[in-house]
Amino acid sequence: MPIANGIREALGSASLIRKMFEEGNRLKKQHGPEKVFDFSLGNPDVEPPPDFHRALRRLAAEDKKGSHGYMPNSGYEETRNALAAKVSQDQGVRLDGSCVVMSCGAAGGLNVVFKALLNPDDEVVVPSPYFMEYRAYAANHGARLVPAATLPDFSLDLGSIEAALSARTGAVLINSPHNPTGRVYPSAVIAGLARILEAHGKRLGRFPYLIADEPYREIAYVPVPPVLAAYRESLAVSSYSKSLSLPGERIGYIGVHPEIRDKEEVLGALAYATRTLGFVNAPALMQRIVAELTDAAVDVGVYARRRDCFKQVLDCAGITYAEPEGAFYLFCQVPSGGDDRAFVSHLKSHLILGVPGSGFGASGWVRFAYCVDENVIKSSAPAFKKALDSWQP
Fold it and tell me: pLDDT class for 63, splitting at 50, 70, 90?
């Protein structure tokens, strides 16, 4: 039997990140891991903080009846209450536990939000470049991603977003700190975006949701302004994949503005979507752990040092980049205006792995992830220099 047509089409342009990651594994087997400089996947190598391991050992050893059973689809009440206090502090509005829905990572949370709030043929406006999986997440629920150009430094272009709004706009999706550019959107710009969405809603009678994808909120080198405080029809989606280095545990949450229109219906839809998408609920053990770790995070200073080290390597090689304010990526311009896929292929011949910017909607750029050991970054310097000396666009 043939596979679904939509999946066949998607496989033809499957995630360039994963393709490069798999290519890196192949090259490491062929040449040895110490000779391959893999900056393809945003897979944190920093270990979770000691508090996580202590909580994991203690809670895993408990023999409490029902501790691994089903719970309400939105998650344990005590976990949601704990996360509500954290989200309230992060977002500048006071939430209670009813406004938090636990999710299977931020990716699971976004799919739940889209399933719950979007209709077929709705549009989701997103600043470009953008995390490449967003397009698939929207398509999962019959919606369509509408990219809006950003300014030359990858800041939000409010005029571009306003021009992209239409009667079919169901949501605007922003990601700050941003993957792949590392940009953090300032509060004045978020406030300006909120005014545009308010005006659009009053004009057409439908207020677009503002969805903040924030898995890198704790991996930031400048303050990250709140989104929920700026706009009533907003939701913040986050995870512990980066802040606690738990990407494989798939634990995250959705924070809903406490005064969102039709609040009870929205919260009920999120719980229903969590169940019917097949997640059913976020992992029980991880919920109990993160409830105790709302103030814990990995050492961001490690990423700051790696960022600075990588910048030195790129400076010496003659590669320019967007100055990262958060996350753990350097978004670099292809030298001499060359093609990003050709440049990535050229780098691969020197055993350097990055991801073409065209996969993020930004041709002519390349993303490097610096969530790798600092020695890998330092050791890559001769390879970068050699690759740039022989690059012919």
Answer: confident
The DSSP secondary-structure symbol of 329 reads E
Topology of domain 66-290 in CATH is Aspartate Aminotransferase; domain 2 (3.40.640)
Q: What is the pLDDT of residues 355-375, one digit of tens each?
A: 999 999 999 999 999 999 999
Residue spans in the chain of domains classed CATH 3.40.640.10: 66-290
Contact (CB, 8 A) for 221 and 304: yes
Asked if 7 contacts 136 with a C-beta cutoff of 8 angstroms, the reply is no
Which residues belong to CATH 3.90.1150.10 in the chain?
A: 5-48+299-389
Q: What are phi and psi of 12, to 5 degrees?
A: -65, -25
- Residue 203 host element (H or E): helix 187-204
CA distances to 50, 221, 267 from 304, rounded to whole Å, are: 20, 7, 37
Q: Is the pLDDT of residue 247 over 70?
A: yes
Q: pTM above 0.85?
A: yes
pLDDT for 4 equals 85
Residues 6+ apart with CB under 8 A from 5: none
Q: For residues 104-137, b (16+ Cβ closer than 10 Å) or e, as one string? A: bbbbbbbbbbbbbbbeeebbbbbbbbbbbebbbb
* pLDDT exceeds cutoff 90 at 281: yes
Which of 364, 299, 329, 328 shows the shortest CA–CA distance to 152? Answer: 364
Beta-ladder partners of 352: 37
Distance CA 143, CA 10 (A): 15
Class of domain 5-48+299-389: alpha beta
pLDDT-derived band at 243, boundaries 50, 70, 90: very high
Q: Is the peptide bond before 177 cis (omega within 30 degrees of 0)?
A: yes
